[in-house]
Amino acid sequence: MNLIPRALSCWLALIVFAVFTSAQAGIPRDPYNYFFHETLGDFPEEQGVAREENKKAILIFFEMEACPFCHRMKETVLNQPEVQDYFRQHFMIYSVNIEGNTEIVGFDGQRMTAKDFSFKVNRVRATPVFAFFDLTGKQIVRFTGPTSGIEEFMWLGEFVEKGLYKEMNFTKYKRERKQSQHR
Predict the structure, then answer these.
(1) Predicted TM-score of the model (pTM)
(2) Structural domains in the chain plus CATH codes
């Protein structure tokens, strides 16, 4: 008699565990803790870390506090565990406030404010800007504005990670991805 309730409680516990575990996988996480890496703003030093960790590139998210599109990206895309895990696996990722007065050392070794690094060096005029730099500090891909969602942002990451930017532009890559989905 006692075996049936025990077996039932074990199955029930297993089901609760499975449901809880699968629900946890999609729970949004703070992008500042799980997407962006911490930095002191010394990008030549960050290049060394990226090389040591065999990263494909450095991604800088140029943002400003009052930007609704930056906020939307952080609340709908950059907070997703699958996005965070994929991007952190392949890239070193930093956020730069384009209005900031924090001192930054640019890829060329020059010291300047975050504002000057954004505006004068990288010509950021609107946000967000996702700028990918190779491990020599050369900008290789730039995407201005929010992506349409998680899928497009993941495609942007794949585009850089696989080196496809050397063969085509991102618009062509997206078109090819969309066509392959409809086949």
Answers:
(1) 0.84
(2) 28-181 (3.40.30.10)
